[in-house]
Amino acid sequence: MATSTILWGGFILLVVIMLAVDLGMNRKSHRVSFKEALGWSILWVGLALAFNVGIYFVLGQQKALEFLTGYLIEKSLSVDNLFVFIMIFTVFGVRGELQARVLKWGILGALIMRVVFIFLGAELLERFQWLFYIFGAVLIYTASKMAFGASEEMDPDKNLMVRLARKVLPMTRKIRGDWFFTRRLGLWVASPLFMVLLVVESSDLVFALDSIPAIFAITLDPFIVLTSNVFAIMGLRALYFLLAEVMGMFAYLKYGISFILAFVGIKMILIMLGVHIPIAISLGVIVLSLVVAMGLSLLANRMGYANRVSGEIP
């Protein structure tokens, strides 16, 4: 009990401190440079790995493997969400410095949603184990849709939260400044930037419904599920600016991520059939899937570049 309390206390203290530092250093909207994004990404990954080492020494190898596997699952799945963020910002015409502001508050909202979903999901799975079949099937369906479905165009007018907000909130026609709300003629009015935040939050809500069941195939321990999710999400903003310029280089990454989703979905169903895939094997499958997908993407880019060069030679 004391060990659990120490870990929970250390985790909460670390997140509060890092949130305070992150929010304090990013109070003013500014364009996040590649160097800054790289620094924050290294910091967040380093903190996650250091926390994983702490779990290893306090809770043992099994829990450490569960955390690392869960962290890699959530981190890899979050990359797919970054493509959605890019689409949202492109549709709304949001500049780089304003993207950082939207992501900052969007990720805070995502953290709150994750806490609710994780504890609710863990409780439901403990009480109704047949939900493993449902969650597994949902993950397999999502994987097939991601791999073989056509990409959909982002249409803000079809977003339920945006439609509801437009009905109840007066809104300016253009984004002016970095505010979400301001007073005009004695009335509170919303900026289109607030609509962007709503779309980001709603997309993360859908993303959470896919990603959280995935980690329940690894463990039902709320501490491992929550901490691995939080560490993956906290570094999402830095990862966005780190990868935004090079995402086009990883054309096959979505297939690697979809394979991971399908694997985890099958693992959830197998659990109900009495077949348990060891955590070490799950971790190996996830890492190998990502490495192969990125390797094939880089190889395809290199071959495409070589073909273009050779095509230019008379």
UniProtKB/TrEMBL annotation:
UniProt entry keywords in alphabetical sequence: Membrane, Transmembrane, Transmembrane helix
Superkingdom as given in the UniProt entry: Bacteria
Membrane-protein topology: Multi-pass membrane protein
Pfam family, one: TerC
Bilayer-spanning residue ranges: 6-25, 37-59, 79-98, 105-124, 130-148, 181-200, 212-240, 252-273, 279-300
A single cellular component GO annotation: plasma membrane
Subcellular localization, as worded in the UniProt entry: Membrane
Chief localization: membrane
Similarity comment: Belongs to the TerC family.
The protein's name in its UniProt record: Membrane protein, TerC family
Protein source organism: Geobacter sulfurreducens (strain ATCC 51573 / DSM 12127 / PCA)
